[in-house]
């Protein structure tokens, strides 16, 4: 009798307990947090469901992005259910994250310096000439192997160029060690923030710590060698060490380390992944490749030098359309995260201070409202004027990626040398795609390559 009563009680409790678990985050944030924050008592949070305790909507996110490999279905299901009216919905993803950044005058000062160092015309001219020899040498060596995994090989070339220009690190064991650390950090970009041994996020934090230690040793070595004398800026790291504010103060060691690490991470995989996708799409769309090749052969025929200048490359209209279309479809940054620094109102809803604001950039680039046949590779879509809000690959506003012109230039330079001297074929034309931590071909783009 007693057992039967307890069974009835347990069975009766299952529905309300299940409901409470599923709506726990909504109850907590929607009632408790809103009540605590609102002095008027009329706080209204955006529509949406926040899922399970701690996990939130992470299981659904991983199911679509990692297992089904249909990220657009995930985004569109949320948008159609909650976001089409007001353009936003509330959810709970990636746990409670902490973001570190530089704000105000310090941020503007750093952006100005980094932009001058890597994104202005004089800097681009210097970088273009410095980076091409490794690209040309790599292409020549790949034909001897004939079959390569492009992503792996291109990463070596790109990282050697980045390591040399940004921190004067020669190719070798030291650079390989740094590359291993940065790869570990990148793996944690979309990982659930469980700082427990054995989890990806924990490993990423350990790799970030090792990266910082790596550059701290380099920082100490440079200070020891330079003594008290100001030295001419030789690379980006020296520039960060020597930059001063209006009061003559240098950046702190932490600021130097954070920024050199952040800049290297920004360029570590992004251009490599986009270049990989460019080869994939050009192999799939031979008509696009033919137009690209003709434009670049025209430039090459009018030159006696093997190297091209940044000015020449950036004037190749169709080539730059190919680059921008690849960047749009590659969607390296599927979303960006910002943090609300104070409570604010939007369309009658309150976004509380401290909440993460996630912007689905992938949806911007694959929305039929913004692009006709958005999943089709069509560089000619760039013939007309493009609304800035429809192309957000590099972000927008004061936080826009300062290396956007450098990234586009690097990809275009490589495509110039590739298209004018080589042909390639996909080993796995129907290779699957991984979407975490970003969109990447599962086979790393295996190709056969030979000279024209």
**CATH hierarchy, class of the largest domain:** Mainly Alpha
Tally of discrete structural domains: 2
- β-strand percent reads 5-15%
If you consult CATH, what is the topology of the largest domain? Cytochrome p450
Distance between the termini: 86 Å
Largest sheet: 3 strands, antiparallel
- Gyration radius, to the nearest Å? 25 Å
**Strand count:** 9
The second-level CATH architecture of the largest domain is Orthogonal Bundle
Keywords:
mainly alpha; two-stranded antiparallel ribbon; 452 residues; three-stranded antiparallel beta sheet; 17 helices; 2 domains; Cytochrome p450; single chain; 7% strand
Short description:
The chain has 452 residues and is mostly helical.
Describe the structure.
The chain is mostly helical. The protein has 17 helices and nine strands. It has helices spanning 2-22, 24-37, 58-68, 71-86, 104-118, 121-145, 150-167, 173-187, 200-226, 236-242, 253-268, 270-284, 286-301, 310-314, 317-330, 361-366, 404-421, and strands at residues 147-149, 336-339, 344-346, 349-351, 356-359, 422-426, 433-434, 440-441, 446-451. The strands form four sheets. The chain has a three-stranded antiparallel β-sheet.
């Amino acid at each position: 009798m007693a057992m039967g009563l307890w069974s009835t009680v347990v069975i009766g409790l299952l529905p309300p307990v299940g409901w409470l678990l599923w709506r726990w985050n909504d109850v907590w944030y929607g009632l408790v947090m809103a009540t605590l924050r609102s002095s008027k008592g009329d706080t209204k949070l955006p529509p949406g469901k926040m899922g399970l305790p701690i996990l939130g909507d992470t299981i659904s996110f991983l199911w679509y992005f990692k297992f089904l490999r249909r990220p657009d279905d995930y985004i569109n299901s949320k948008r159609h259910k909650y976001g089409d009216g007001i353009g936003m919905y509330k959810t709970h993803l990636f746990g409670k994250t902490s973001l570190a950044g530089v704000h105000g005058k310090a941020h503007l000062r750093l952006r100005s310096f980094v932009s001058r160092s890597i994104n202005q015309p004089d800097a681009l001219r210097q970088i273009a000439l410095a980076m091409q020899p490794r690209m040309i040498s790599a292409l020549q060596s790949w034909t001897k192997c004939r079959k390569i995994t492009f992503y792996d090989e291109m990463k070596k070339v790109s990282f050697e160029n980045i390591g040399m220009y940004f921190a004067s690190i020669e190719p070798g064991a030291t650079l390989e060690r740094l590359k291993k650390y940065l790869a570990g950090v990148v793996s944690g970009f979309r990982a659930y923030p469980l700082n427990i041994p054995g989890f990806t996020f924990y490993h990423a934090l350990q790799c970030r710590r090792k990266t910082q230690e790596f550059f701290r040793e380099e920082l100490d070595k440079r200070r020891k060698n330079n003594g008290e004398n100001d030295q001419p800026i030789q690379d980006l790291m020296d520039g960060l060490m020597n930059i001063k504010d209006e009061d003559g103060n240098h950046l702190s060691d932490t600021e130097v380390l954070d920024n050199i690490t952040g800049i290297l991470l920004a360029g570590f995989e992004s251009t490599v992944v986009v270049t990989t996708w460019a080869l994939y799409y050009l192999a799939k769309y031979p008509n696009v490749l033919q137009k690209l090749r003709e434009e670049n052969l025209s430039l090459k025929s009018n030159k006696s030098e093997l190297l091209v200048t940044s000015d020449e490359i950036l004037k190749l209209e169709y080539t730059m359309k190919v680059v921008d279309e690849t960047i749009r479809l590659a969607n390296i940054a599927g979303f960006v995260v910002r943090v609300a620094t104070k409570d604010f109102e939007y369309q009658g809803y309150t976004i509380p201070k401290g909440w993460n604001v996630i912007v689905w950039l992938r949806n911007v680039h694959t929305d039929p409202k913004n692009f006709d046949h958005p999943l089709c590779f069509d560089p000619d879509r760039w013939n007309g004027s493009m609304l800035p809000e429809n192309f957000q690959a590099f972000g927008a506003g004061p936080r826009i990626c300062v290396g956007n012109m450098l990234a586009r230039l690097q990809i275009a330079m490589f495509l110039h040398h590739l298209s004018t001297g080589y042909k390639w074929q996909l080993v796995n034309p129907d290779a699957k795609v991984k979407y975490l931590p970003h969109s990447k071909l599962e086979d790393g783009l295996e190709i056969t390559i030979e000279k024209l």
